[in-house]
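chain below, 238 aa
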Amino acid sequence: MGSKKNVDMSATTDEVKIVENTQAPAVESDAETAAPKAEKKAARIRSKKYVATRSQVDKTKIYDAFSAIELTKKLSYSKFDGSITVDGVVRETGVQNKLTLPHSTGKSLKVVIVDDAVLAEIEAGNIDFDALITTPQFMPKIAKHARVLGPRGLMPNPKNGTVTANPEQKKADLEKGELIIKTEKKRPVIHVTIGKVSMDTKELVENYNALMTALKGKVLKSTLSATMSPGIKVDFEV
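prediction:
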């Protein structure tokens, strides 16, 4: 009786050892292979030209507006006249401001006033404009297209003046360069073009300062970049 019990216990122990020896390496293998995959997914490959230009930017420094714009223009390596954009972090989502910059940004807007012909074009999926203005009377008709216009930032809104009893005046203001500054839908981040690389630095600085003045007290961080250049931290206190 005693001998039989010892044999059973020995067999059980051996079975446990076999299970442990065969399962443990498999667990380690899964962990080892999972980590490199996660790292590979997170890695972002940059071009040699981008890396070379980025190395000329002091990441620990916050540049004054003039120095930041001069450096942005120097480091821009696009073959076309790139746009200079301000990417700002603000205090809250939904910030909206209207602003006309002192100098043209070099970008012309196509502004359309809603009428039955425009509604027919929207219905057909032909959306060929940068801003849409309507009178209050047309709002019930335009509301049915909110799902199409909303995500594109084209839905008229009384808060930014694109729903107005005087659409012709608003159209003229927008075509002169009036900007409607607003954050991304779910993040307190703004993206505003202040001009072209080819513009005079003094004019770009004045456009930048006008933007920061309009957002005074709302900005937490400001970065400047051209269409193809690294970001440069810039002072937002004016």
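Residues 83 and 196 are 4 Å apart (CA to CA). Confidence is low (pLDDT under 50) at residues 2-35.
thats it, cya
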